[in-house]
Structures are given as C-alpha cells and as structure tokens.
Amino acid sequence: MLFSPSSRQNNSAKNSNCGHSSRFSHLGMTLIELMVSIGITSILTTIALPNLNDFVVELRVDNEISRLSRLLIVARNHAIASQDNVIVCPLSDNGSCTSNWHEELSVFVDSNNNQRFDGNINELMVTTKPAIINGDRLVYALNRSRITYQATGHLFGLGNGTFRYCPEGHNDKSRGIVVARSGRFYATTDINNDGKDENRSRQVIQCD
Fold first, then answer.
1. Among 141, 92, 142, CA closest to 116
2. Is 30-187 assigned to CATH 3.55.40.10?
3. What confidence tens digit (pLDDT) does each residue in 35-46 have?
C-alpha cells in the first residue's frame, strides 16, 4: 500500500506531538506535590526569618561601632600630627557641641580652644560621621557633650566614658566603645558568652 507524502508528514507530526505530550506529562507537578512544596517553604521561612533579622541587626550594630572607632582614630591621630586640640562631638547650628550623639558627629580642630567650631575663622573640619538609623540609640557618658584630644593624644579633662549603641527592639544586641583618659579605646565583646556584650569590668552594655 502506498502512502502519499502528505500522509507521511501528518503521521510524523502526530508522533512528534505524542512525544512532546509524554515528556511534558512527566515534567509536570501534581497538586499534592505543589502543596507539599509550599508547606516546606513556609516552615523553612518561619525558621529562617528570625535568624535573618538578628543577623541584619548585628551587622548594623557592628558597622556603627566600626565607623565610630575609625572616627576616634582619625581624631586622635590628627591631634598628634597637628599638635592642636581636636574635638569629637555632635554640633548644633551655632557651632557648639551638644549631647545628641545619635546625630551627625563632627571632628574638628579647635585652634582657639573655645570648645566650639568656628567656621568664620577657618577652623578645620577634619571629618564627619552620619547620624545613626532612626529609632536606634547612641549615648555617651553622662553629661558629656564632647571628646577633646590633646596634642599628646590624651583626653582633655573628664572626657573619658563609654559609647553605647542600642538597636531599637534588640537591647541584647547592644555594643559599646570604652574611651580611656589616655585617648585609647576598645570595643566591647561578649566576654561570658551569654549573648550580650560586656565591658572589661563585666558590666552589660545597655542604654537605659
């Protein structure tokens, strides 16, 4: 029996379509499989999200502690190199220091020793650090509105104290920087492995 070319083409097309249909049926996903996949994804998400959130908070705190550390290093080194008093503080609009340590911090040369920034006499603004994220807290020692580095690298007066950075809603993630009268400082760590940072006197870092 003879087949026309068109008949052969039709049969080939049918066979080809059957092959594709068979392959696609194997590649598909049943409703039960889909529901199981969604359930597993939901469980994994529920477990992972709190850990991810903790990681993000810890990263934010560590970054701020690192930025503040670099700021203090720059201030101390500049005081020694320039043989001038260098001040670290949050500035008000009129150039005086405030105790709003959560705001932008400035490092400047106090060439006339009046404990304020006088741009009109061309005092040098060495560097600045941006304000911390809204809701978090950064505080320094009680009633301290500035840190003044002398030409020796030591602090002027009673400028020593502890910076405490406390992320909103995560007080257990708080960290600090302890500044000594020598001008040197250290970042706090979790000494006793209880999940909270302590200073070397084993006092937990907190802002309240």
1. 92
2. yes
3. 777 777 766 666
